[in-house]
Design goal:
Elements lengths: L1 H6 L9 H28 L3 H27 L10 H14 L5 H24 L5 H31 L1
Helix pairs in contact: 2-3, 2-4, 2-5, 3-6, 4-5, 5-6
Length: about 160
């Protein structure tokens, strides 16, 4: 039930165009982190299902990025450059874990799930804002996708743990 409350529009004053662009740019950095992170994970895992999931999710993040870029432009904003420093550190850590060997796939899945926890939290934060209807509908759809990503990664992680 708590997740439903996160999706409702707040009753505060509408955001200015600049504030909408700020929210969208935060999510844009988030999608870039996701795209780069999923690509890094795909390069490090050995199992075909995990590799395919990561590549698919990287493409989904690139599609979300494209949508956000269009919205930012429609609100007269300038897109943020790149992802976040935390995202770059996370990707570096994934590559380090990938080089460790035997238990690396489980470690990568665990790291990826933590990254998706962050993504879901950023979308929840955005949805607490009084976004215009056109922006809210895109953000809600993308938030649902981020939650699906998280759940798929969690399920793969659980399957990897069960093998041990």
């Amino acid at each position: 039930m708590a997740a439903d409350n996160d999706m409702r529009a707040p009753t505060t004053a509408p955001l200015s165009k600049d504030e909408v662009v700020d929210v969208l740019n935060d999510l844009l950095e988030n999608t870039r982190d996701g795209s780069y992170g999923f690509q890094a994970c795909a390069e490090e895992v050995q199992s075909a299902p995990a590799k395919q999931l990561f590549l698919s999710r990287a493409e989904g993040c690139r599609q979300a990025e494209s949508e956000l870029l269009q919205l930012i432009a429609s609100y007269g904003g300038k897109p943020a450059d790149g992802g976040t420093a935390a995202g770059a550190l996370h990707r570096g850590w994934v590559h380090v874990k990938g080089s460790l060997g035997a238990d690396s796939e489980l470690a990568i899945l665990e790291s990826c799930e933590r990254g998706e926890d962050t993504a879901v939290a950023r979308y929840r934060k955005a949805l607490k804002q009084n976004l215009p209807a056109d922006v809210r509908s895109v953000v809600e759809r993308q938030a649902a996708g981020a939650q699906r990503n998280h759940d798929q990664i969690r399920d793969l992680r659980n399957a990897a743990r069960a093998k041990d």
